[in-house]
Specification:
CATH topology: Four Helix Bundle (Hemerythrin (Met), subunit A)
Number of domains: 1
CATH superfamily: dinb family like domain
Shape: globular
Number of helices: 5
Strand content: 5-15%
Distance between the termini: 54 Å
CATH architecture: Up-down Bundle
Largest sheet: 2 strands, antiparallel
Length: 204
């Protein structure tokens, strides 16, 4: 059956490529290799966050877009839920619904000190990596999957780009690799937000 997005339309080429990438890499990589790639992505993200000035984190350089604090809160909350889902998958159980939705946040970005948000993100990343220490390659036939909300940035007919959202059932390796992409995407997002803030300050 052909996949469709949440609006009932066909998947864009970018979305199909994401699925194919996850499937191929899941077959190529061992459990320790996947864990180390996630560890590296988490470290890259934390390195970018480490140089952020606390005075920047609640500024909104692009109207309608998240602040840096909101991005960091989102990643921490998503990593916590990802660890819960992976814990079930690695134990041979299908995770209970609801799935991890794409814009998950706690609201702490509005009031929590920046240092607390950074610490929460680090703790969430470490919990996920510690869980993956127990991951093994001997996945049994018919192993459980998790209902996953997928998001890919796709080209539109008017020349702009935007997110396409659809639902996918993922085994643990594909799910873990998707989380790695999530960390790297938000690393890039924070870099772009900082560049926008720098550009705004130079125009003042």
């Amino acid at each position: 059956m052909d996949r469709i997005d949440v609006k009932g339309g066909p998947l864009a080429p970018e979305s199909i490529r994401m699925i194919e990438y996850l499937n191929v890499r899941a077959k190529e990589l061992s459990a320790p290799q996947i864990r180390e790639r996630i560890r590296a992505a988490a470290q890259e993200l934390e390195n970018v966050i480490a140089v952020v000035d606390p005075s920047e984190v609640q500024l909104r350089p692009v109207e309608g877009k998240w602040t840096i604090a909101e991005v960091v809160d989102h990643i921490a909350q998503t990593s916590v839920r990802a660890a819960e889902e992976l814990r079930n998958l690695l134990a041979g159980r299908r995770p209970p619904l609801p799935p991890v939705y794409e814009a998950l946040r706690s609201g702490a970005a509005d009031w929590a000190p920046w240092g607390q948000l950074v610490e929460d993100l680090h703790d969430a990343n470490q919990s996920l990596l510690e869980l993956l220490e127990s991951a093994r390659d001997d996945t049994k036939e018919g192993a459980p999957t998790v209902k996953t909300i997928m998001v890919a940035t796709c080209a539109r007919s008017d020349g702009t780009t935007g997110p396409q959202i659809w639902v996918e059932e993922l085994p643990w390796k594909e799910y873990a690799l998707l989380h790695r992409l999530h960390l790297l995407d938000h690393r890039t997002q924070i870099k772009k937000l900082r560049s926008s803030l720098l550009g705004s300050s130079m125009r003042v």
